[in-house]
Amino acid sequence: MISIVIAEDQSLLRGALAALLTLEPDIELLAQAQDGEEAVRLVKELKPDVLVTDIEMPGLTGIEASETLRQSGSETRVLIVTTFARPGYLQRALQAGVLGYVLKDAPSEELADAVRRVARGQRAIASELAESAWSAPVVLTARERDILRLVEEGKSNKEIARLLNLSPGTVRNYLAEATQKLGAANRIEAFQIARENGWL
Length: 200
What we know:
Elements (H helix, E strand, L loop, with lengths): L1 E6 L3 H12 L4 E7 L2 H11 L3 E4 L8 H10 L5 E6 L4 H9 L4 E4 L4 H12 L4 E2 L1 H9 L6 H11 L4 H8 L3 H15 L4 H10 L4
Parallel strand pairs: 1-2, 1-3, 3-4, 4-5, 5-6
Helix pairs in contact: 2-3, 4-6, 7-9, 7-10, 8-9, 9-10
């Protein structure tokens, strides 16, 4: 039997995933989480074979939950089920140690097969994303992403500097570098491009 924990903040979708996967004779659902922090706690407590998780959730995202589990030495493998068909999200997920990445509109048999592949330690990547993930480079550093997220929130360079314990000049340099990498005209366009590509 493959034991799983499901993490999804929308209760209707969480219930649908649970119903679909528990129809499979070789998959056992141990628990359901409504956010990333609960998912991490349940995985550490129950040690399932696979965590099936969404990306965007309150608290920790699915990618951050995966990174947290990897750093803690957890052997649970992670499968992301999401609506985000963007190479930037997939690249960040792979960097966080995620083995599977499938889309929510995939057929149910494809989802069950992805759970089995991930449980065996194999990759299971949505075919429409697999090629683009390797061809589209990750262009932003973690610090540049942090700064662009704060720009998106409407923070000034001084506010960003204070929040991240940097000098305003350093923030300006990071923004100039990120803007150039993204081919953006200004900081607003930079975060918009980064958001559209799944890099934030």
